[in-house]
Write a structure and sequence with these properties.
4-stranded mixed sheet
Length: about 80
């Protein structure tokens, strides 16, 4: 893992369903400084589109996305 992708915080949303993953992601990213990365782990299929759409709308950058056996990992850089 490159240093610029190393998460400053991790949100574990495994087993949680909409709207919890997006609500927890919003809350956690507020605690970070601009440029820091938040790692979000989720297994709710709706989270993939929800989190991508939210990041796009509010202007944060998804620097990495992995999907493995239904578990998704989003590395989101706080941009503002």
């Amino acid at each position: 893992m490159k240093d610029e992708e190393r998460p400053a915080a991790v949100v574990d949303c495994i087993g949680l369903y909409c709207p919890m993953p997006i609500a927890m992601t919003k809350e956690a990213i507020e605690t970070l400084d601009v440029g820091e990365v938040l790692l979000v782990e989720a297994d709710d299929p709706a989270a993939e589109e929800d989190i991508r759409r939210w990041a796009n709308r509010v202007g944060h950058e998804i620097v990495k996305f992995e999907k493995d056996d239904g578990t998704m990992r989003f590395s989101i850089r706080k941009m503002k």
